[in-house]
Amino acid sequence: MSLDLETERRITRLEAEAEDRDRVMREMKEKVDKMYDFLMQAKGARWALIAAAGVGGAMAGFATKLIPWTHTLPK
Fold this sequence. Notes:
Number of helices: 2
Number of domains: 2
Order of helices and strands: HH
Number of strands: 0
Largest sheet: none
Low-confidence stretches: none
Distance between the termini: 95 Å
Helix content: over 70%
Structural class: mainly alpha
Shape: elongated
């Protein structure tokens, strides 16, 4: 009789853990779906950020060429 009671308790505990795991997986799926939808809406913004990074990189490259000449500027 105690073996059956212990088995029932284990099964009940496993069912509760499985339900909790399912709930967590559903929440994670919802979050991933929301992030995916957000990223798909921002396709244009992604290209704008890439262009801004390119312009900033080019400006930084040109600025490094001018640094050696800054010691000749008046103080």
